[in-house]
Amino acid sequence: FPCPVAKSSICTQETKECPDGTHVGRDSSNNCEFFPCPSVICTKEVKQCADGSFVGRDSNNKCEFFPWQCADGSFVGRDSNNNCEFFPCPAAKSTICTQETKECPDGTHVGRDSNNNCEFFPCPSLICTKDAKQCADGSFVGRDSNNNCEFFPCPSVICTKEV
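Request: output the structure for the sequence above.
Response:
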């Protein structure tokens, strides 16, 4: 029996450009298919964005930086006319509240919060002194922080008729 003879193909000399920019030729032992492109390994470089977050490089896109996701959920790419900086995100709509104020139980005033649907800012917590008042029946009452630190009312004295 004769030994099998390995088939050898003569391939054309064209090349294929890979995503990383390198070129590969044809493989004569694989039916002149192109050799596989090398695995793309991007640098670990990251870019810190204005809001403090980071974006890395995309191995499926010639190691370009991933697009930036804006606060409103939209994405922006890079501007080749501006040193490859990200295009600006759409401007956030700012809320403008009315200028009215609310008087708090302690006499201070609070305005409206544009980051909370123009609700009033909370009033400061009122902290009353710890003094007490002695009532006519001998009991003691403290101060009421829900009533401008006035003393709680003394218990009502109910007189009984002696027989």
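The first strand starts at residue 16 and ends at 17.
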